[in-house]
Amino acid sequence: MSAAEDKLEILMGKLLDGEISPAEQRILDRELEQDARARELLEQLRELHECGHEVVMQEVRRGGTDPEELFERAWKQNRGSVWQRIIHIGGLPRFAVGLAAGFLLGLLLHFVPIGGAKPPVDVNHGQEVTKRIADNVGDRDEAWSVRPRPNSPQVTREVEWYGFTDQAGDQWLIEGFREGIAKPASYQGDL
Amino acid sequence: MNEREPNELTLVCAAREGDKEALQTLLKRNWGWLRGLVYSVLTRRQDLDDVMQEVCLRVIGRIHTLREPERFRAWLAILAKREAIRHWRHRPQEVPPSDSPGYLGDPAEDVEKKDLCGRVLEAVRTLPEKYREVFVLAHAGELTYAQMAEVLDIPITTMQIRLVRARRMIRDQITGKSEQKVHEI
């Protein structure tokens, strides 16, 4: 089939479907006047169009359940679903539910310890740090005699130890709490 | 049809907000072509009501997700086709011939026309889906060419060519001509 035949059939289809414009109608009329085969084709298409309409009406439109009845059934079925009811909450109530859920989640995360998040605490950690600083100093080993801790050995305190040299050249051993509180742990004036 | 466009838009907006009446009216207005579209996938009317109820259920459950109210028909068509395809995939492979009756027609119709319509129905059922859906929509007589193109989400010229080819294939089958190769468009 050529493009011209395609175009002619499109025009005939438009005529049958009521979509043809006056300009297209003139073109089609001219073709029909000149070509007997075109007239025959139009008759065939007209017959097919009528039958097509009948067939579609029978298969699709006639019979079947009333759309309102089907809709009502579907509406009831949809409303019966708890999940759908939750989804259909809208506006302020939905916002309030979201806010409450977020608040609860926040509380949960704040108070429930998460396994593995806490660093291991080593009671000897402070002494090891002190020793490392002393090793670096070299010939001043005696100066780094660490005073015994006032707490009993069983008590674990979460502290960090730091070495610090001030502007005068004096060295300090700093005991720092995890909470950010720092206090001098020992001072050897002759360092 | 254009006169009702603003009204349909208003209805879509109301339906999105959960207005049952608006949604019911919308579905009722679009019922004919929607059934046609579902039929073009299923090719038998026995399952139409089941699928249409599923379509209603989907529309009710998802109307609030529709972002462009002016594209309601296209959205509805996609939803209906998906549902029809899903149903078609799950139906029994072997359909007994008695489940797909031929053309019954009007008792007053003459025998010759009844016979012709029967052959048209058989030919429609054997069309490739993309031609069948165009043919069914065009003969349901509800939508203009532009609306059909919108529903099928294809250019209007493509829709017109598909319709010409669908009619030609049916004509060839009825007149007993050998099947012609239809080029993909």
Would you give an account of this structure?
The complex is a heterodimer of chains A (191) and B (185). With 191 residues, chain A is mainly alpha-helical. Chain A has helices spanning 3-17, 22-34, 36-61, 67-79, 82-88, 91-111, 125-137; strands at 159-165, 171-177, 182-187. Chain A has a 3-stranded antiparallel β-sheet with strand order 1-2-3, with helices on one face. In chain A, a hairpin with a 5-residue loop joins β1 (159-165) and β2 (171-177). In chain A, α1 crosses α2. The longest helix of chain A has 26 residues, at 36-61. Chain A is elongated. The N and C termini of chain A lie far apart (106 Å). The longest helix of chain B is centred in the last third of the chain and has 20 residues, at 156-175. Chain B is mainly alpha-helical and 185 residues long. Chain B has helices spanning 5-16, 20-29, 31-42, 48-62, 72-90, 111-126, 129-140, 145-152, 156-175. In chain B, α1 (5-16) packs across α2 (20-29) and α4 (48-62) crosses α5. Chain B contains 9 helices and no strands. Classes of the chains: A mainly alpha (191), B mainly alpha (185). The interface between A and B is large, with 39 and 50 residues.
Shape of chain B: globular
Enumerate how many helices of chain A there are, as a single number: 7
How far apart the termini of chain B lie comes to 29 Å
Radius of gyration from the alpha-carbon trace of chain B, in angstroms: 18 Å
Instruction: Briefly note the structural class of the backbone of chain B.
Output: mainly alpha
**Strand pairing plus helix content of chain A: what structural class?**
mainly alpha
Shape of chain A: elongated
| Largest beta-sheet characterization of chain B | none
Low-confidence stretches of chain A: none
Please trace the helix and strand order of chain A, writing H or E for each element. Answer: HHHHHHHEEE
Largest interface, per-chain counts? A-B, 39 and 50 residues
